[in-house]
Amino acid sequence: MAVEVRIPTILRTFTNGAKAVEGGGSTLLQLIDDVDARNPGLKSRLIESENLRRFVNVYVNDEDVRFSGGLSAPIADGDVVVVLPAVAGG
Questions:
Q1: What is the DSSP code string of 6-29?
Q2: Within 13 Å of residue 72, how many CA atoms lie on the same side as its CB?
Q3: What is the pTM for the complete model shown?
Q4: Which domains does the chain have, with CATH numbers?
């Protein structure tokens, strides 16, 4: 089993249009590295200065990783990771 990573529309150019990709790792950073190995450029859109970019929200099984360890958040087989860009406007 692997981890499913759901990709927002704006980042699907890095996944050849795929809405979801699979990856592995025991932490969020390892998962991102694994997915980036097959989808180059994705990591640079998610991470800046060794942290998640300010306007990128990542959830593991519906839990915001900013409250569960950030890039060190634990990941397990069967988890679902959702990447959501923050939206602003009025």
A1: E--GGGGGGGTT-SEEEE--SBHH
A2: 2
A3: 0.92
A4: 3-85 (3.10.20.30)
